[in-house]
Amino acid sequence: MSNCNKLQDIAYLRREYTRGGLSSKDLPSNPLVLFNTWLQQACAAQLPDPTAMTVATVNNNGQPYQRTVLLKQYDENGMVFYTNLGSRKSLQLLNNPKVSLHFFWHLLERQVMLLGKVEKLSSLEVLKYFHSRPYESQVGAWVSKQSTNIPTRKILEKRFFEFKKKFQPGKVPLPDFWGGFRVKYYTIEFWQGGEYRLHDRFIYQIKNNNWMINRLSP
User: d(Cα 42, Cα 36) in Å, to the nearest integer?
Assistant: First the structure.
């Protein structure tokens, strides 16, 4: 077994992808159908955090940033996630709404990449989801000024207990700096690992309200 502590060994870490391919004849006309199937299979396989997705944004200087969030809703209208509106990603999205999402279900040897633009969720949508969260998560939303510098963790913990004393269960108000985004996607790419690195890649792109499908070289 390779030793990851030795940098020279990293280049030789690899495995074969053998769980099966993806054929064009099995592709639905609507990519959301395939996405739903893959997500449900990831859940059924009990993968950790099957709804985890990487969100990529770009700042004013063209510098890309990435972070992982959880998908909370999806349908024909887009992919939804929630966040602090004062965070780095939110400020970048408000300045440049173009975004990329990436799902990686490693044990199923699958990836899904989406391109799209974000729109802010309505106050009603945000409020409904906020009050469905666990009490501690609602309190936690008040604690952090996301992406800002903080001297120690103790400051976070102190603020958390202060807000717990201030807000009782069932009576946590929605912070005005907390909200969500819907990613209106126009490109979805599916990747299924294959033997000998001959992976299967298919890209869906919307054109004249119809999804065009093309196979990509691995």
Answer: 10
The question of whether 197 is a catalytic residue gets the answer: yes
CATH for 17-131+179-216, options being 2.30.110.10, 3.50.50.60, 1.20.1250.10, 3.30.930.10? 2.30.110.10
**CB atoms < 10 A from the CB of 139, how many?**
21
How much is the pTM? Answer: 0.91
Unique residue bearing structure tokens 């592709």: 27
Within 13 A of 172's CA, how many CA atoms are on the CB side?
A: 26
Residues 216 and 201: their CA atoms lie apart, in Å, by: 5
Domain boundaries, the chain: 17-131+179-216, 136-173
Tens digits of residue pLDDT in 161-188: 999 999 999 999 999 999 999 999 999 9
Catalytic residue among 159, 197, 201, 215: 197
